[in-house]
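Handout, section 4.2: multi-component inputs.
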Amino acid sequence: MSIGYACLSVGVPETGFKTCTQKNADRDRLRSLIAHNLTSLENLIDYNAENNIRLFRISSDIIPFGSSPVNQLAWQDLFGEDFTRIGEKIRTAGMRVSMHPGQYTVLNSPDEDISRRAVLDLEFHARFLDALHTGPENKIVLHIGGAYGNKQEAARRFAGMYAGLDSAVRQRLVIENDEKSFSIRDVLDISGETGAPVVFDNLHHAVNPGGTPGSDSGWIRACAGTWGTGDGRQKIHYSQQAPGKKTGAHSDSIRIDDFLTFYQSIHGEELDIMLEVKDKNLSAVKCINCTADARQINLLERDWGRYKYLILEQAPAVYREIRELLKNRAAYPAAAFYRLIEYALTAEADRGNSVNAAEHVWGYFKNTADEREKKQFFRCLEKLEAGETSSAPCKHMLLHLAQKYRQKYLLASLYFYI
DNA sequence: TGACGTCAAGATCCG
DNA sequence: CGGATCTTGACGTCA
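Output:
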């Protein structure tokens, strides 16, 4: 069982992706964007390895215009050594990666130009995973596409296109139910035609159930048989409805109690679970820690180190409560810990709390900062206290100091990033 | 023709 | 100047 997240991180330094507009996409620009993005990918892989995250989706945007004639760069060759090095790290960490072209890659489109571009896009994704020297269990996840008023016909067109794909693509391709047209029942039928493994997406299924009713775990079992020996562990996508947002919108964070209920219901299934959630790695670590075999409190202490100043700012009472909770080093109150963090993050910002948290963080620098920095910080703090600014300028300054004075522990604090 | 979804670039305004 | 808040771009389908 691995639990992972998609594409981007929250609060991991130097992991951002850059792109440009089509009209600015010249060779030099693309080369430097790709160099930057591969460095970010390597930093993400390092972070994942250090944090026990063994499932990760690589963003399609890592190569800007990766399947467009705008990008003629031989990036596999130009960055061959980087790909090899990053691929080795993935393998060494026992990590499984994937890619997922978005809703605009439509293989079954009746418009031949659109389906042709979809093929090119899939080939780009396969080329990327090949460049990392990853095996075929590192999948490309794809939706079936549009229904065009005749789902049967659209499904047949998908199967026809699938059969014509290069084996480098086909061996990696897995198909997923969507929230509009193709239900899990439809996708299982298409799998019967094509042999492609099926990814069950619980939220898409809740929005677009189709077929005969069944529990999530029932459908997951139904998908299990589509995964062959070379395909690796069966994968599912898991997400939760964002409260108050439109149907199908992903939540900001995974609510741990709902996740654990789901997790109990699929107990015994050997699955890889890809979380689709705004706070990305944060929810991944949460769910990993709450289902870990090694119930060591240092897992929680480590995550607490990243949350603590954020929680101090959001809800000082919860800060104190969590400190109490973690005092018993023989216990492993993972769910209780994350439940408190979820609760604290719902609190409204309070100026006094912001000042208090900023002063705490300032404690790292009060003996090392020079006179100019001291003056600057306290001027910033006074403005915050007077309600003349948000806490952003203070935080920005403290982050700058953390970088200058190499406070590694502080640099990883979510206080700066949420 | 605009909504849909996503995230970064780019533009603009404010103090 | 930094920060906050738009708008645009890039994609295809569907109402």
